[in-house]
Amino acid sequence: MRASVFLLSGLLVLLLSACSSNGDRQDFTSEADLYEQAMSQMSSSRWDSAIRSLQLLEEHFPFGKYAEQAQLELIYAYYRSGDPDAATVSADRFIRLHPQHRNVDYAYYMKGLAAYDKDENFLATIMPLDQTQRDPGAARESLAYFTQLLNRYPDSPYAQDAKKRMLYLRNRLARYEIHVANYYFKRGAYLASVKRGQYVLENYQGTPAVPDALAVMVQGYHLLEMDELSDRSLAVLRLNYPDHPAFDNDGDFNFQHGDVEERSWISKATFGLFDKRDPRGFDSRRVFDPQYQDAPRATQ
After folding, report:
1. What is the pLDDT of residues 97-109, one digit of tens each?
2. What is the pLDDT of residue 20?
């Protein structure tokens, strides 16, 4: 019996030692101590530990001096830990609880930033994928959140960075519409292609996708035998973008330029890594946006 007591005591000591050996002990005597512990963990990028400390702080001191700041820090800790969904939930919660807080604009900004990075995944880091061809759901969310930030807090210190990211997002979303239009051309859905071109003109003016949107409309209306509308679109394209690659050396529109080439089975099996072919369809980024790149990395 006595041996069993000693054994149990020994196991308890080992467990306590293991819990404190990683330097993330959750012992504190005051709200300030716990907040300082969380800040120390964040400064050393121990995000999971910081999250636990911040949660403890809110649990034990929900109306304390650091409670509101801890909620803001928790948004960032979730974001840096690679959990954008939790960051968004925390930001929404802060906005709901403290709509008049002097730093509530930060919560709106972090919602946009979390969505901005949300669609980055493992494949995107190891394969040369064109970001503009990916599902734009997160990009649309991010654009909406950043727009909300600017509408509510145009003088926010985060407004300038939000504007830069919105510029990229608008370009990305506009280019996605052109990819879809090219896909519809391949399927023979010419009216659907035209509508995608129209959508770009109506919603993404000033983006590098506008020339291709006009070319899509020229081609689509031509294939629909709506020649008057095709000619009108062609006149606008020729006037504003005479260097569009769909024009031949004589300045005539090449109606075969936008034909989408069927990919080989090798290209499909390797996601285009092998048997790369010249991109078909309308894609004039090299002409009208030579600096086009993937999104800037999130500010750390």
Report:
1. 999 999 999 999 9
2. 44
Q: What residue spans define the domains of the chain?
A: 31-157, 180-289
Q: Sorting pLDDT into bands at 50, 70 and 90, what band is 134?
A: confident
- Domain covering 180-289, topology: 1.25.40
Report CA torsion sign: 199, 202, 203, 206: positive
What CA–CA distance (Å, rounded) separates 250 from 181?
Answer: 26
Asked if CATH classification 1.10.10.10 holds for the domain at 31-157, the reply, yes or no, is no
Q: Which two tokens stand for residue 87?
A: 């960051």
> Tens of pLDDT along 75-103?
999 999 999 999 999 999 999 999 999 99
Q: Say which amino acid occupies 109.
A: Y
- Do the domains 180-289 and 31-157 match in fold? yes
Q: Which helix H or strand E contains 172, and what residues bound it?
A: helix 159-187
The amino acid at 202: E
